[in-house]
Please model this.
Amino acid sequence: MQGRGMEAMAVYQPVLKESVTTLLKFAVLPIGKVLVMCALGLLLATKTVNILPATSRRQLSKLVFSLFLPCLIFTQLGKAVTLAKIIEWWFIPVNVILSSTFGCLLGYAVAFLVKPPPQFFNFTVVMIGIGNIGNIPLVIIGAICREKGNPFEDSATCNTNGVAYISFGQWVGAVIVYTYVYYMLAPPENPTGLNNSTDALSSKALMANGSQNLVSNDPETEVSIPLIGSEPTPEQPKGLSLLKHWLQQARVMDILQPPVVASLLALVFGCVPLLRSLIFTEHSFLYFLFDSLNILGGATVPCIMLVLGGNLVQGAGSSELGLRTTVAITFTRLFLIPPMGMSVVLMADKFGFLPPGNKMFKFVLLLQHSMPSSILAGAVTNLRGHAEKEASAILFYEHVLAIVSMAGWLVLYINVLF
Model:
């Protein structure tokens, strides 16, 4: 009996060793590939090389956001989606909403405990609650699917399905960013808490002086020279005015960003059989259009990583958050949100909300809870003109520490799935 037990242990140990090695391989290698691409971006952005300065990174980001990413979303989501699959994938946008909701609730709790500077209270909530559900997951999925013998399906199917699942959740994330996050990151009216009455009086005086300078000292000149455009403009219908006001308040044009539009078009073209057969079917009349857009979409991931690495050349910047708040945001986002998200996904699977046996689907749901703070939320700080340096500092620290956190969570997720 003892001999048989020793023999069984001898067989079990190589299997255990191989499984752990495989888990580490598929968990750490994607992070390593991300780091290599980011390191190249960092090198190109240094003053010594100076091929990717701040202006170039800004332009490359616009190109990715306006062209490459929409092409990737349209080709991958449109090819994979059908009306039946939309019904089957309903939990993906729900998962994004739950991730943001629970994350922001935890963010409020952390902000009340840590007590960041008052002007950064909402910023703390947003950076904890809103994760990167697009860029980094795309890189991780692409890196895993390119590996031979990956734990999912063959490389082409693995990548197509993974990108489709991620893209199906991105439009919800964009709506959240350009509504809730935009509102939360509004600059405080009086961030320093000082009495600005003197400044207000000075401003009024300057305005008064400016008005006096615009009026001629000669009364005859004032009467004889007609004012251009002085005729009253016709009033718009009340309904049209209300509609324009609602569109401005709802920031519909901000929500309809190129990636969101590409997602909506992909859903339409993927669900309508005639349009689907024209573009996404090989040897069809417009298949060359799909092929061209697919080539452009392939530039998305490397360009994103180069820009991200280049942005790290400025380091943590001169953040005013303070060490305690910075540590609290980074630790909560990377180490407390993921287990909460894993509970959500496992409960959804237990209640039968997820497609049975679809491991890639579940893996993408878990990734949506495990990423650093949203880069789009960082972009909104530039748009609002508030907390830009603080956002750069948080994104810097989180992406450095994500080397450890994401590798650990990926090992756990793959272990749970398989």
